[in-house]
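Researcher: Please translate sequence to structure tokens.
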Amino acid sequence: MRIEPRRRYAALALVVLAALAVGCASVNHLREAQEAFNEAVTLETTLRFDAALAEGPTQAQLAQNTTVQNGYASALLSLDRLESRDVDRLKRDGLWGNVLALKALAQWRLGLTDDAQSTARELQQTGAGPVHPRDRALLLALPGLIRTDEAFAALQRVPAEPSPAQRAATLRNVQLLVADAGEAIDRGRGAVDPAHPVHVYLIQARLAALRNLQVAHERLGDGDARALPPERRAEVQRELKELKCHAERLGATPEIVTYWAGRFTLAPAPGAC
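Model: Translation complete:
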């Protein structure tokens, strides 16, 4: 079963960092980084929706994927160009924590996972100043987002005809990665108000992890193990219901829930929000 990598967090544009109210010319690089990052996030989300409707990537989508990666790279380059006096000014203004958050998230989207985790640790260990609640939630969830990527990559490495030992080892690996991902994503969600819009993104991240687990069972399990365990199916349905409730409250398109329900062939858990 083939999964498009760009589909994993489909359906809602997430402008990850709030615009910072900075007007000094010395922080132009920061504003440029924000703009490049936000444009890349918006385009990437659009591509995921398009991919969900298409049988395979078109030439235009492949070109736009390059544009997305260039956007994240441009954001990172702008941050790397910050001079020492810019850093000092941002620290004085209480904005350095937001800079590190943006840097870590750009590194993650570029696949620089070791660098992203190192930047996130720097932020947590140095007390680099206040961080926007949404960005703090994403940073806490970042290890889980990376584990989800690792689970996906593990499935991509499975040969066409794996041995029984390979099947068992990969399935166990994915199970552990998905469990770790869920714990980290829950930590991120626990750091913000229950009504915060970032929950929509993080619920989808949790569903993406569970989708990797479902694919692992379908491809690598034997007998009854070829389907998600009942407790995991119930978890998916709870997440779908929560996604539905958040989306309705925010006025988001219903396709966001339809997309994920279709991926799992499961309906949201019954009951009122």
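Researcher: Any highlights?
Model: The chain has two domains: 1-131, 132-273.
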